Amino acid sequence: MDKQASDDPSSGAREERPQPQSLSDLYISFTLLALQGFGGVMAVVQRELVERKRWLTREEFVEDWAVAQIMPGPNVVNLSIIIGGRYFGLRGAIAAFAGILSVPLILILLIAVLYAPYAHEPRVVGMLRAMGAVASGLILATGIRLLGALQKNVIGIPLCVVLGGLCFVAVAVLRFPLVYPLFALGIVSFALAYRKLKP
Amino acid sequence: MNDTLQLHFQAADWLHLLLHYLSLSLISLGGAIATVPDMHRYLVDQQHWLTDTQFSASIAIAQAAPGPNILFVALMGWNIGLNAGTVTTGLLAALLTISSMLLPSTIATYMATSWAQRNQHLRSVRAFKQGMAPVVVGLVLATGWILASTPDQAARDWPLWVITAVTMLLVLRTRIHILWLLAAGALLGWFGLV
């Protein structure tokens, strides 16, 4: 899927890097990722696909995640399509998409039936609260890990810190709806990167 | 959850449900959770297809369960289907809502990424990827921060912050598997230790 990448300076390592072996490898991998994702699948994807399986570098993960965020639709679902599509085209995208959704869909319908009577059981409530705290720690750690991907960015580290910091403040502190900071800061930082890159 | 509704769904109602989610799909920029207020307005306030309890329970269960949070849409469909008939109707409605929510956005994403893949040497494509990186990393940190700050009473909830901080350190410093961390959190919560 990546023949044109041969003259890209960063693509030399890509040929030797591990890849999904088949459509069923993709389907199973994404099913397992989805089933580990309590309170958000993204942290699991980063840890499994970048650090364990090494299908992606940290930089590629950030690029893919940017596209997954900017397109309509849930970001992990978009990410599965992007990664699946890269290796096996449309069939890969469908396999990864089915992986991230099919088993979790069956599971959640089962849970909906079984969970309803226990929704207010204090031990269940306590368990979910604590798992939520673990999930937020996972995502924060992912964010810190991804900071490393900015070292080689053409914009330069100081401007990256300013743009990332503004985005954090807008979303986490001022609680703006995601769309506004994403597009406003995205346009500024696109313009900065465009100027730095050679035509 | 005894406050269920009795609905008499006609073909036109199913079509409206389908169209509602198809249209939400393409405007769900920044994640489906951004479209929740609009779903509430339509499904609960305007059409009375779901009760408030069913609506919020659908979101809470999807967030607690493994898998993408977008599955709350399937649970809403499931509840509407149950209100309108039997378990079979519930299953069909779940499939209908989740597919109409995901198909348009998925096709758009696939087409956009195939295009970007073919044109990856364009200056604008490279500038987009480089430029978005710092914004996206800021966004990931913000997401973690927002999730960590749901507990609001410092005196009672400080142990949850400790769990978040310890998880973060373990993930950064060790290669421990995420499932062990989740299991440990689940046990601590189950026995009321946090």
Q: Can you summarize this structure?
A:
The complex is a heterodimer of chains A (about 200) and B (about 190). With about 200 residues, chain A is mainly α.
What does this entry look like structurally?
The complex is a heterodimer of chains A (199) and B (194). With 199 residues, chain A is mainly alpha-helical. Chain A has seven helices and no strands. Chain B is mainly α. Chain B has two domains: 104 residues, no CATH class; 70 residues, no CATH class. Chain B is flat. Chains A and B meet through helix 1, helix 2, helix 3, helix 4 and helix 5 of A and helix 1, helix 3, helix 4, helix 5 and helix 6 of B.
Indicate the topology.
The complex is a heterodimer of chains A (199) and B (194).
Chain A lengths: L22 H14 L5 H11 L5 H13 L4 H41 L6 H26 L9 H17 L5 H18 L3
Helix pairs in contact in A: 1-4, 2-5, 3-4, 6-7
Chain B lengths: L10 H17 L8 H11 L5 H13 L7 H13 L2 H32 L4 H26 L5 H20 L4 H13 L4
Based on Cα principal axes, name the global outline of chain A: globular
Chain-averaged pLDDT of chain A: 86
Mean pLDDT of chain B: 87
Low-confidence stretches of chain B: none
Biggest sheet layout of chain A: none
The largest contact between protein chains, plus residue counts on each side, is: A-B, 116 and 97 residues
Distance between the termini of chain A: 25 Å
Give the CA-based shape of chain B: flat
Proportion of beta-strand residues of chain B: under 5%
Poorly predicted runs of 5 or more residues of chain A: 1-13
Count structural domains of chain B: 2
Question: Over all CA atoms, what is the radius of gyration of chain A?
Answer: 19 Å
The run of helices and strands of chain B is: HHHHHHHH
Structural features:
heterodimer; A: 199 residues; mainly alpha; 7 helices; 70% helix; B: 194 residues; 2 domains; flat
